[in-house]
Amino acid sequence: MVRCDCPFCRATYEMESIDPGATIACSRCGNTFRVAGPVLHLCPDCGRKLSPHAAVCPHCGRPLTSDAAAQQENSFVNSAVREAWLRLVRWWSRL
Ligand SMILES: [Zn+2]
Ligand SMILES: [Zn+2]
User: Is 90 helix (H, G, I), strand (E, B) or coil?
Assistant: First the structure.
């Protein structure tokens, strides 16, 4: 959940997701405005403000993004690669 405010009339919009820099037409005042980053994210469970990059809510622990799991997998792969690399370097230094 993402929240942004219309800079003209202060109407608040809550949407599933907004790209920073996206243009939004305000249905209240009719102006169009560009979303200024960083966009405020809200936890769908506890409704508290979150960092746009938070994969898990720091307040209630809810996983927030569908790619949070993918990101975790990525970092796992990265650490596995790093681990393999370090082992290789250690092996080389023994030669
Ligand atoms: Zn407006
Ligand atoms: Zn939460």
Answer: helix
